[in-house]
Design goal:
2 copies of one chain form a homodimer.
Chain A (H helix, E strand, L loop, with lengths): L19 H21 L6 H6 L8 H4 L3 H16 L4 H6 L3 H32 L4 H29 L7 H22 L2 H16 L5
Chain A binds a DNA duplex (30 and 30 nucleotides) through helix 1 and helix 3.
Chain lengths: ~210, ~210
DNA sequence: GACATCTCTTGACAACTGTCAAGATCGGGC
DNA sequence: GCCCGATCTTGACAGTTGTCAAGAGATGTC
């Protein structure tokens, strides 16, 4: 944990919930860390480099975090917490199955455009968790929330289509995540054209995930 | 390249094609490197560690390879060259569509059982290629051969089924690779049971990849 | 204003990294 | 035997890493 008593928010505050200055600094550091991590990857992002892209000096990291691993885990958790709601609007606002497919495909492509460094960082950390035990638990937990996020889309799509899903949550997530990762990979070399390809794939694949009415 | 004139095999040899002692040592080193890389991952596998798991000392690496990157690329190429034929027997020997699905699903599960470290290394390097330009070209090339490998399976499956594929090579590879990677990830935590799940997923998903006759 | 606590910087540490050069060792041709 | 090139080891280099301790600065309390 931290270097102080852990301050589980609202330790005697009125209403605005300032979450403690300590926690705010942690988040601030995490946000800086995400920039550097997304640019260099887990292995090559040193604490000095991370601190260099922040308003602080390199020593301050160990005041707010026990070690590099805790900072990284805190950072990716902080980022992914925002992400898991990315497709909720799609699910909520789509009135027909076709509309949902279009909105989902567009959103997938857009997030690669907007946040490619964050996505490659996520895949980097998930892969590192196959080598480093310290990462495994956090990564597994986040991955489960992503699977749930995708399942909300697929399940709603099935409902709107009046047909049952033909695959389970894990398979649906695995397949779509595979396509997404592939698109991300080639996007970093080939750029924009890849994304229309991804949208087309999603339009093809989503219907395949449903069975007969 | 190397530290010597590059010896593109058979520089005046009779028949057994000894490929040159130089190239044999390169391969020998590459095979040792694969062990260490598969255990520690790209970032944490140092040249000293790699050499330590080989019959040689750490300095010899730079006699056979220019730098770490060339060694790693040579190693993964060496490994994947053997891999791309993994499912060829399945394609060749299956007489019915159902037989092919079964054989393919079994083979996928078996290679996770047998070569998990090599597979996680591959995903590690592919992810690193999103951060390191020096890896990109080799990774992209290998990935294309894997896509072709998967397509041979899917295409043959379509033929045996008397139905056309409903998705292209890229999408088929992306989806199956996603499932495979997911299975690998959870296999490293949960072990054997995951693999029967993977087989089940493949039995479900492959038929979904075909259209109407 | 003085004290105490929180916050942050600076500088150092030991360990480790990829790289390379100098030289030892080996093997075969004469 | 001797020599020469190929092969390999040893030891060093400059740089980087995560970590931490000592202390400076800030902040709020009495």
């Amino acid at each position: 944990m931290s270097g102080r008593l852990s301050s589980s928010y609202d330790a005697g505050v009125t209403a605005t919930r300032p979450v403690d200055k300590f926690d705010r600094r942690r988040t601030e550091l995490a946000e800086s860390a995400l920039l550097t991590l997304g640019e260099l990857g887990y292995a090559r992002a040193s604490l000095r480099e991370i601190a260099g892209n922040s308003p602080f000096s390199h020593g301050v990291v160990h005041y707010y975090f026990d070690d590099k691993l805790e900072l990284v885990i805190y950072s990716i958790r902080h980022y992914k917490a925002r992400c898991v709601t990315r497709y909720d609007a799609v699910v909520r606002d789509s009135a027909t199955a076709g509309e949902l497919v279009e909105a989902f495909a567009a959103k997938l492509a857009q997030t690669i455009r907007d946040e490619a460094p964050m996505h490659r960082l996520w895949y980097d950390l998930r892969t590192q968790s196959m080598f480093e035990d310290g990462l495994r638990e956090a990564i597994t937990e986040i991955d489960a929330t992503l699977e749930a996020m995708i399942w909300r889309v697929v399940d709603r799509y099935a409902t709107l289509s009046g047909r049952p899903p033909a695959v389970g949550p894990a398979a649906a997530y695995g397949m779509l995540d595979g396509l997404f990762q592939q698109a991300l990979l080639t996007y970093l070399s080939a750029g924009e054209p890849v994304l229309t390809g991804l949208s087309a794939q999603v339009r093809t694949v989503l219907p395949l995930m449903l069975g007969r009415p």
